[in-house]
Amino acid sequence: MKVIDRSLIQLYFTFLRIGLFTIGGGYAMLPLIQKEVVEKYGWATDEEVINYYAIGQSTPGIIAVNTATFIGVKQGGFLGGVAATLGMVTPSWIIISLLAHFIDAFRENPYVEKAFMGIRIMVLALILSAVIKMGQKVLKHISDYFLMILGLILVAFLDITPVYVILMGAILGVIIQSLGKRQEREGKNLD
Amino acid sequence: MLLFNPLEKDKKERGRILTNFLHLFFTFFKVGLFTIGGGLAALPLLQNYSERYGWVDEKMFADMIAISESTPGPIGINMATYVGLSQYGFIGSIVATTGMVLPSLLIIYLIANFLKGFNEQPIVQGVLQGIRPVVIGIIGSALIAISKVTIIKMPTLYAKGQWLDFFEWKSLIIFGVFIIAVMKMKIHPIFFIVGAGVVGIILF
Known about the structure:
The complex is a heterodimer of chains A (191) and B (204). With 191 residues, chain A is mainly α. Chain A has 8 helices and no strands. Chain A has 3 domains: 2-106; 109-138; 139-191, no CATH class. Chain A is globular and about 50 Å long. The relative contact order of chain B is 0.09. Chain B is globular, with a radius of gyration of 21 Å. Chain B has 7 helices and no strands. In chain B, helix 1 (4-34) runs antiparallel to helix 2, helix 1 packs across helix 4 and helix 2 crosses helix 5. At the A-B interface, helix 1, helix 3, helix 4, helix 5 and helix 6 of A face helix 1, helix 2, helix 3, helix 4 and helix 5 of B.
């Protein structure tokens, strides 16, 4: 029992460290995971981490949390998953709680307001460039472009809740696949 | 009676608080459940619910993204913490964060234990091939929301002033410079955000 407890604590603090040094989202986390999880503790191999990451991207939830949960579950079952997830979440939670008062108080300051006018434009540029990069990987078929435009129109202009549009995308994806339009690409993937 | 009344009031109050927490929990549970393919995919969902429930306005939403990009932790967790805290205090932040990560925990637990080769299942691939392009389009809608507080003219708000027209052209030019910098230079986003803050102070 003591051994299990210690490994849970170790999982918690390992992912707390990873969470603390992951600034700017999931992709920044991968090198840290490799260093801590693969090299330091040997909890998983490089290939396994890449697999967890791939599954983390294709399952609901935040990639960082999904990957942490996967490694935690593999190490210590359900409680291991909980410990890793809690570790991953703790830095965000403490830092944002501390910043929240600062955010509300200082946003009224004219210099902060000016700085954020610049920063908002940068946020737009950062997201647009990330979306373009995503698009280059994802958009391959005519049907992909059709789905992308459909998603944009339904949410941005017809004001439909994203949840329904994502469900629709899932159903259309299965239909398109079963129509056999993707067989060619799958054939290529096998080669 | 004296004893009964406050208790009755207390009960109602407790019921109301519980309803608020449940609402917060399930809203973030939905965000967690329908965020597929990374933090960016959470943005349109968060933006949609923020607008609907009046959690944060569009400016604050853009600022939260900037804060999340420059502080540790995933944006979904940062947003959940902030919204929970600002709406219902300390416990609210725990409730929202728990709601956000619970779908991950349950689904990953099931996959890790029962579904070997999850990603190779044809149905999973079909679903993902449909969701990925749709999510790109949906993120486009979050981009439009941020554009409204940065570069796009909003005629109803800015009907009177010509100076304000000019102001948006300035933002648009700055945006052009920023997007070229982001696409060409491979440095951490935090440096871009700090740089953009300095540019904002100088130019606005």
